[in-house]
Every structure is written in structure tokens, then in C-alpha cells.
């Protein structure tokens, strides 16, 4: 099964495009799949090794400053609220909850990735309500109310599997070890979740695109540019701390479902199309990375056999 992994993401993207109307109907299964993925991931992590690093601080600073700075600059240049808000939420959007699945396969440190998954999501819980107090359609909403609303959505996805894994490690270590042995299943569960998410996302683009194609095109262009910037800068920054894969994935791989919800609820709903496009672009990049790693491993094996 290992040799087919690099083809899973392209197939999921293709099926999501072709079957988006039907796939969107079963999208309600995604939270259950994500819970299972994260439980397997957290059970494989040494929780005692989770700590905040300097890389985490730089990633947080990038998300906070670049999201707001880009919004202000684009508005000043006359890009309009839709594109400006799309970029704002696209950069601030929390790291994908399942980022460890791809990152570890690419060679990233599991504990580094897991730590920022938690830290980065908590950062968004605090920063997003501040931004939404002066940007978007709910500027009159009290900070604490917005804070609790975002915290609830993130904790349901991230908090439940984390504390379930912690409870297993403390009180039922044999159960934790059993799940750890099957951590490889998380990739295939994630592939199914990706298919459902992409199908819903592509269906969302078609629905929102009616009569708004000019804005849709600009959102798509901006999304592609910022996808390149975030993965590229993240890899450069990660290389400074000896883990360019973690840096790239943690800054570039986004929880687009969470971002789309925040954009739809707090901002101009059409701005959420930025993240819909981003979901496709980031997974095309991940597919290419996996294909590259697979070929490198094959070449290494061939060289070893020759020796």
C-alpha cells in the first residue's frame, strides 16, 4: 500500500471535482474522521516532549502581522473588501488539525508539528476576535462572546481527541499502545476526509461563483500566490531551525473548513472562496511533495541494491 500513497491526493482531488454534488451530501462525516485521525496521531506522540519553540514564535508572528498587514495594504491599494478579507482570513487561518499526517510522512518531527497544531489554533482563538471587532460584519459583537464561539469550534475538533489520547496514556496505556500500532491508518482516514472536504469545497465554489466570477478569479489568483508564499517562507524559516518540512507545513497547510466558517460568519461570505481555492492548491502541493519523496526513496533503495 505504501507505493500508492502518492496517488491518493490527486485521486481525491479528481473525485472531489467530478462528484462534488454527491460528495457534499455526506460531508457531515468529516468531523468523525478528523477525530479518529487526531486520536491516532496524538496516541503516537510523546506528550511530555511537547513544548513551544522559537520556530513557533516566528510562525505566530508571521500569521498575525502578515494577515493584518496584507489586509490594510490591499485595502489601501483599492483591492476591495472581498479580496482583502479573503487574504486576511487565508493567512490567519489556523493550521490544519491533521497536518501531522502529511508532515510526518514527509520527514517532519511529530512532536514539533503537534505542538504548533495546538499553539497555533489557540493563537487564532485569541487574535481572530480582536480582528473581527473592527473588520467584518460583526464588529459590535463582544470580544468574549466571539472568543467563546471560536474556541468552541476549535476545541470540539482539536481538544476532544487530545484529551482522549491523554486519558488513554494515563489510565489505559495498553489501549494507547494498541492505537499507536495502527497510526498508519490515519493517512487513509485523512484521504477519505479530504475527498469529502474537497467535494464540499468545489461545490461551494460553483455555488458562490454564480454572478461573481470577477471576484472569484481575483480570489483564486490571490489564493495561489499566498499558498506559494506561506509554504515557501515556512520552509525557509523552518530550515533556520533544522526542520524545513515542519516550517512549510505548519505555515502553509490550513484548516480551510474552519477558515471558511470564520469568513462566512464574520466577514463578507464571498471572501471564503479564497480558502476554498487554497484547499485545492495546498493539496496539489502536498501530492507533489509525496510523489517526490516516494521517488527519492525508490532511488535510494536502487542505489543501495547496487552497492
Please describe what this structure looks like.
Helix 11 (213-240) crosses helix 14 (273-306). The chain contains 14 helices and no strands. The protein is mainly α and 307 residues long. It has a single domain (2-301), classed as Na+/H+ antiporter like fold (Up-down Bundle), CATH 1.20.1530.
What attributes does this structure have?
307 residues, mainly alpha, Na+/H+ antiporter like fold, 14 helices, globular
Give the SSE layout.
Elements: H1 5-18, H2 20-23, H3 30-43, H4 54-76, H5 81-92, H6 99-106, H7 110-132, H8 143-171, H9 173-181, H10 185-209, H11 213-240, H12 244-252, H13 256-266, H14 273-306
Question: Can I get a quick summary?
Answer:
The chain has helices at 5-18, 20-23, 30-43, 54-76, 81-92, 99-106, 110-132, 143-171, 173-181, 185-209, 213-240, 244-252, 256-266, 273-306. Helix content is 79%, strand content 0%.
pLDDT below 50 for ≥5 consecutive residues: which ranges? none
> Averaging pLDDT over every residue, what do you get?
87
State the end-to-end CA separation. Answer: 26 Å
**Helical element count?**
14
Question: What CATH architecture do you see?
Answer: Up-down Bundle
